[in-house]
Amino acid sequence: MAVRQLFYGNFFFLGCESQIWFSVKKKQFFRNFITIMLFGAVGTLISWSIISFGVIKFFKEMDIGSLEIGDFLAIGAIFAATDSVCTLQVLNQDETPLLYSLVFGEGVVNDATSVVLFNAIQSFDLTNTNHRIALEFIGSFLYLFLASTLLGVAVGLVSAYIIKTLYFGRHSTDREFALMMLMAYLSYIMAELFYLSGILTVFFCGIVMSHYTWHNVTESSRITSKHAFATLSFVCETFIFLHVGMDALDIETWKFVNDRPGTSIIVSSVLLALVMAGRAAFVFPLSFLSNLAHKSANEKISFRQQIIIWWAGLMRGAVSMALAYNQFTRAGHTQLRWNAIMITSTITVVLFSSVVFGLMTKPLIRFLLPHSKVTSAPSGSSSPKSITVPFLGSTQDSFEDSPKGVQQPSSIRALLTTPTHTVHYYWRKFDNAFMRPVFGGRGFVPFVPGSPAERSEHKLPQLQ
């Protein structure tokens, strides 16, 4: 069991860190931050509630075993974790930036929320629930979520400050890349050490490091890190899928249910139906609420895009497998029939959703979005498009203080009507005045003689 958790955790760290650094455009991500958090956090809680309520209602009537209330809630957390990798492989970030940003951001936040929720469930004895236990459970969930986020941000800032101020590895690409890699991995290790969410920690650590740390190294280190992380991302995703396939051939687990195959099929069907219902219960209502807060048609989520977002979250993958083995195995072995039924049902749902839903994703996107050219992989998923283009892009992720034509709010009411541009404007002023002079970043990299990147960036005008 420990080996399986270590395998999934370490390879998910590498894949997640690489996707954060070289796939997502952070300006687009933070422009839709509220919607992403609605889908990833609030939506996950809604999906978890529906799945948990459904399994309590149906599984008790089916009498599949002596499952307790904690097991039912854990099942909800297990199947609330999405795996949108297949959808991201056919979405193009440049052609459908809004859709790509929502699917990617919601997928990462969803995984983190599911893991945090699962850990909170395991840390409480829910056999005798009352108001005090419920409040403690909510407090534990919020603590894990906020502490994991702050830890990732803190480690990212520390890495940026170290690389900016220490010059012992300034001209060594190997040392700079190794230091960035180890500092990112340190955030994951510290999260696991303090029983926090490693996924959420490394997610925010990657965002901070790509905004500050990555701009503090030399040009050769940036080129190396681009290709190295892109390669690691591809290899790690491949190994995760291979390991999921190997878990599907767990003969010991299948032996427990070979005399009752009908029960396993029914359980898998019920879980698939609950996953689809739980997904629909928050995607369409939350999309409606998100559209109310946006006036521009380009920022609103169309009904066809909502269908794709709903479809993207139906696939289950490595996170669900790891959580299921964590909940229903002891010392790496499944010794009870109902635990074996849950393991085999999870495997069935993962394989069915990945194969069937995954194969239908590309035709569905072509049918719903005929004007968007669907490619086999998004730009930057396998390797960077160009090593000479700035990391954040030249247009979409530029560092202008404020968009042209945006009037600054003069009241709280005006602030609420244009929250995206206003928050970005004040964050950019704070970032330029306080954060970048201390932690580095584009336009604030110290000059080191003999470094081509340092000389080129030293010539950039300081942003005021």
UniProtKB/TrEMBL annotation:
Which residues belong to any copy of the Cation/H+ exchanger transmembrane domain?
A: 24-365
> Which Pfam families does the protein's record reference?
Na_H_Exchanger
What membrane topology does the annotation report for this chain? Multi-pass membrane protein
Name the GO cellular-component terms: plasma membrane
Name its cellular compartments. Membrane
- List, in alphabetical order, the Gene Ontology terms for molecular function in this entry: potassium:proton antiporter activity; sodium:proton antiporter activity
Please list the GO biological process terms of this entry: regulation of intracellular pH; regulation of stomatal closure; sodium ion import across plasma membrane
Record keyword Transmembrane helix present: yes
The chemistry this enzyme catalyses reads: K(+)(in) + H(+)(out) = K(+)(out) + H(+)(in); Na(+)(in) + H(+)(out) = Na(+)(out) + H(+)(in)
User: Under what name is this protein listed?
Assistant: Cation/H+ exchanger transmembrane domain-containing protein
Q: Origin organism of this chain?
A: Gossypium raimondii (Peruvian cotton)
